[in-house]
Design brief:
By secondary structure, the chain is α/β, with parallel strands linked by helices. The protein contains six helices and nine strands.
Length: about 220
C-alpha cells in the first residue's frame, strides 16, 4: 500500500466531501499518522471509510470512528490554542492526538483499562506530550479538572448528561452524537450562561455507544 497516496485519497475523497474545509484541520490530517493508531492487524483499514475495530488487549466491540466523522467533529469544535479539552472515549488515542495539536491541554477518559493502556502507548509513541489519558466513567466527566473550554464525545449517547454540560466554562462547547438508531445527530451544545445552554444539530450520522451512559427507560404493558 502506498501510504501517502492512501492518506491523500482519504482526505480528498472522504473528508472534503463531508464539508471539512478548514485548511488547518486538513493539514493536520495530512501530517498525523493515523496508521500508527490502528492495531497492527487492522492497519490495512487505516484510511478506509469505515469504523476500525480496536481488538488490541481484548477490547472487542470498540472502534475508531470513520475518518470523516473524526475530522468533522474536530472542525466543528473550532478549538483555539489556549483551550483545555476533555474527550470521552479514548479509544486508540488518535482523536486525542488531533485535539492536542489544536489545543493547549487535553484529557481523554475511557472506562476500559485496555483502551487506556492502548491510548497511552500510542500517544507516547507519537510524541504527544499535552494529552493525558485517564481511566474513569465518561458519564461523570472529570470534575477535578473542570471547567473545560470544549468536550467531545467520541461515540454516541442517548442523551448528554447534565454533569458533563456543567463541566463547561461559560462560552464552552460540547459536541456529541445523540439519539437512537437508525438516526443519530451530531449536536453542538454551548454554555451561554451559568444555567443557560443552547444546542444546534450539525448533521445526521451513526456511531457506536459509549460505555456506561444511561439509555432511555423502556416500559412494557
Amino acid at each position: 500500500m502506498n501510504v501517502e497516496q492512501a492518506r491523500f485519497n482519504m482526505i480528498e475523497q472522504q473528508i472534503r466531501p463531508w464539508d471539512v474545509l478548514d485548511s488547518d484541520v486538513l493539514t493536520l490530517l495530512a501530517v498525523m499518522r493515523r496508521e500508527d493508531f490502528v492495531p497492527a492487524e487492522q492497519r490495512a483499514l487505516a484510511f478506509v471509510d469505515m469504523m476500525v475495530p480496536l481488538r488490541d488487549g481484548g477490547a472487542a466491540g470498540q472502534c475508531m470512528l470513520e475518518p470523516k466523522q473524526e475530522a468533522r467533529l474536530l472542525q466543528e469544535l473550532r478549538l483555539q490554542r489556549h483551550e483545555k479539552v476533555l474527550e470521552i472515549g479514548a479509544g486508540s488515542g488518535y482523536m486525542a492526538a488531533l485535539l492536542a495539536h489544536r489545543a493547549q491541554q487535553v484529557f481523554t477518559l475511557d472506562l476500559a483499562p485496555e483502551m487506556v493502556a492502548l491510548a497511552k502507548a500510542n500517544l507516547q509513541r507519537a510524541g504527544v506530550m499535552n494529552a493525558t489519558v485517564r481511566q474513569g466513567d465518561g458519564a461523570q466527566g472529570l470534575p477535578g479538572e473542570a471547567p473545560f473550554d470544549a468536550i467531545v464525545l467520541s461515540g454516541s449517547v442517548a442523551s448528554v448528561p447534565q454533569a458533563l454540560l456543567e463541566q463547561l466554562k461559560v462560552g464552552g462547547r460540547l459536541i456529541a452524537i445523540v439519539g437512537q438508531e437508525p438516526v443519530m445527530r451530531a449536536t453542538l451544545f454551548t454554555r451561554s450562561g451559568e444555567r443557560e445552554f443552547g444546542e444546534v444539530v450539525l448533521f445526521d450520522t451513526l456511531a457506536p455507544r459509549l460505555l456506561n451512559f444511561p439509555e432511555p427507560t423502556r416500559f412494557s404493558f
